[in-house]
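protien #1 (seq + structre)
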Amino acid sequence: MTKIIALDGYTLNPGDLNWKGLESISSFSVFPRTKRNEIIERGKLADILIVNKLVLDRQILKHLPRLKYICVSATGYNNVDLDFCREKNIPVSNVSGYSTPAVAQHVFALLFGLTNQVERYNQEVHLGIWSKQNDFAYWHEPINEVHGMVMGIYGFGKIGKAVANVALAFGMKVIVNRKNPNKETFEGIEYVELDELFSQSDVLSLHAPLTEENKGIISLLNLAKMKPTSYLINTARGGLINESALRNALENKRIAGAALDVLSSEPPSPDHVLMNLDNCIITPHQAWASLGARKRLLTEVVKNVEGFLQGELRNII
């Protein structure tokens, strides 16, 4: 019987979903987390491995002689040595598109955290600060409307498009920088060069994959091009940002604020360079992780595995 093993299943299913779809296919085992030194022992009997962020490099894969197929339970797949898998004819699949609504929603949750500061004011109300005021309404910083702001989007895949649609619904002007601006037209948006994206955006939202070319693209030089009233949002990859440069820009009010769901190292150390800034919101890489998104992800993982077993490869990388 085909042996299916999930090596780091916790983030996909911490207990609020079930594994019945995979259990009904064949012999299935799941480990919530697996350390690198445990991968070979746990995976050596697997015909199929399901991994999320666990690294399967050549040094690991060469010790898994039974392995016939890898299903990545995520969109990103740089944790798998694709060259080795091609050499050994091991197909690798991923899942894309499952988190688009969730990430788009989180982008605006972060943006409203910056503009409306709901969390801060809620805390102040419960601390009794509102109760001490002389007037019925209370605020101590301007509340900025997103209507009429320029939403700049760096990277224009499925999530970038979803963010653009929401931004347009809020009455924002949308400008986009992408690798190939001639690929397609999109009603209501304007394609711009990178310099224009930085200089014109009131909100700059990052939605590009991380590559050697764009690593650290949020640099001192590019941050200096932004408006002092602008906001930076990152739900893509932490490596897009030079984090020391961003701290400098935030401390010196070069931009008004940042809201990040990803960092260069995760989880971060307690003394991470972007900690403890009043104008920097950080959430723990959860934009993708709504219940609905994880249900869609698990459904697609099941379909990928079923397809492989039936000789119909799906979502091959």
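ok now protien #2
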Amino acid sequence: MQVEDRVIDFKKKIDLISVEIGKVIVGQKEVVRDTLVALVAGGHILLEGVPGLGKTLLIRTLGEVLNLSFSRIQFTPDLMPADITGTNLVIEREPGRRVFEFQKGPVFANLVLADEINRATPKTQSALLEAMQEHTVTAAGTRYKLPQPFMVLATQNPIEMEGTYPLPEAQVDRFFFKTTVEFPKMEELNLILDRTTGIELPPVEIVIDGNDILELRKLAREVLVATPVRDYVSRIVISTHPDSENAIESTRKYIRYGSSPRGAQALVIAAKVNAIMDGRFNVGFDDVVKSLKSALRHRLILNFEAQAEGIPVENILDDLIKEVPHESEKNS
């Protein structure tokens, strides 16, 4: 199949997935798109929003549409690492003969919902690190591979922070995207009430499966990024560092630490996925801007002045989009 035909087929599949998810999930188009981009890119996503906005329903519906296994882990202060990864149990095979057998934990699924991840202790949070980065779990010196595709979708409540353990920057940086789940508008809320207070939710159909997702990932990686677009990504990330000569004014004033190289990687890969989701095999500057906030909002650390003045990170990201030029000054 020619590249053009593969891209057209990719776009059709993504459109069908969006339609099926839309049968259950009302609105939240940006959240749905970010989730699909992160899935195709092979990354993980951090969803931030108050309870009751349909985050669990979205992930469960995505699993049904893609025919992927789904598991939900409710993070609590007493949750232990073995509750996530699994543990070795003594099994009696026959009378008088006992052996250790590894019982897989809920992390052994294609889509893993880590609900309210900041409620668990750092030790338990770190149990996800190897799984997220290496796609493996180590128990008693033995490594077990996780099913593919594998994606962690973590949620956290931005309001109720008492008794929580904020995720360390090193772990937050491992999330491909951080997406804010907004409260629905009135017309959307009315539609949610109509759908959820009736007899049952509308059924969804399977569009593709795990093998198709892996093929889509390969196609996304094949997309070439022109040098000007790559340089634009680098300028964006460098401009988030307050001690850089390319830093914009709001960065120097309000940012303590800028994005890591993972932010640049996320922008490039997301731009590739955005391009083929729109039916193109070439990446433009708009493809980068489309995912800029989701890729960088959790990678910028505000300083004391920003927190004292109540400056949200979204303002700095808006300034980056406005002030960082697409072309380098040498070429302009």
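The chain has 16 helices and eleven strands.
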